[in-house]
């Protein structure tokens, strides 16, 4: 899953690179059955798009060293859109990282493709759960402590 604030017309080079490296590091994954699913949160809706790497995209992505927005050699031919069927019937289960944190959208610097983690059967925590954004809650605490130190917001006219 890749979440993004708006829908883009193509798959980003960094997504191609990350997916290719994950496939290269996990030989037991079937590259033809592995997709990249983007979820774009547009005003009033949510847009899903599924992509699959082409053989050229896989080769380019696993050797790409340029993490910039426009790396040399990148082309829209590195992926293709694939059909996605949505249903209200779910057959399967959720596997979440031990500890429950799966959303690194709010703490991206802590995410690494070389992270080691175990998986457990469980329901995933909500997207905005406090476990996914500890820095926000530390900021809220700091604001509250600062307000307590500053005292009242209004002048005491009876003193």
Gist?
With 159 residues, this protein is an alpha+beta fold. Helices cover 25% and strands 18% of the residues.
Features:
159 residues; alpha+beta; two-stranded antiparallel sheet; 18% strand; four-stranded mixed sheet; 3 helices
Folded structure, characterized:
The structure is a single chain. The protein is 25% helix and 18% strand. The chain is built from three helices and six strands, in the order βαββαβββα. The model has no long low-confidence stretch (mean pLDDT 83).
Q: β content, as a range?
A: 15-25%
C-alpha-based Rg, rounded: 21 Å
Number of strands: 6
Portion of residues within helices:
10-25%
* Shape label: elongated
Global structural class: alpha+beta
**Main sheet summary:** 4 strands, mixed
Mean pLDDT equals 83
Element order, helices and strands? EHEEHEEEH
Low-confidence stretches: none
Specify the number of helices.
Answer: 3
Fold blueprint:
Layout: E1 2-4, H1 13-25, E2 36-42, E3 45-53, H2 55-63, E4 79-82, E5 95-97, E6 119-121, H3 134-150
Parallel strand pairs: 1-2
Antiparallel strand pairs: 2-3, 3-4, 5-6
Helix pairs in contact: 1-2
């Amino acid at each position: 899953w890749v979440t993004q604030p708006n829908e883009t017309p193509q798959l980003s080079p960094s997504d191609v690179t990350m997916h290719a490296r994950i496939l290269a590091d996990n030989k037991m994954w079937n590259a033809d059955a592995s997709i990249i699913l983007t979820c774009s949160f547009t005003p009033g809706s949510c847009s899903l798009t599924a992509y699959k790497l082409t053989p050229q995209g896989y080769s380019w992505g696993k050797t790409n060293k340029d993490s910039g927005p426009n790396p040399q050699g990148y082309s829209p031919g590195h992926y293709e859109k694939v059909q996605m069927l949505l249903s209200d019937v779910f057959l399967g289960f959720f596997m979440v990282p031990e500890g429950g944190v799966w959303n690194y959208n709010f703490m991206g610097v802590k995410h690494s493709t070389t992270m080691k983690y175990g998986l457990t059967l469980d329901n995933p925590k909500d997207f905005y759960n406090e476990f996914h954004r500890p820095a926000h809650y530390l900021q809220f605490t700091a604001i509250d402590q600062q307000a307590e130190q500053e005292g009242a917001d209004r002048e005491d006219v009876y003193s």
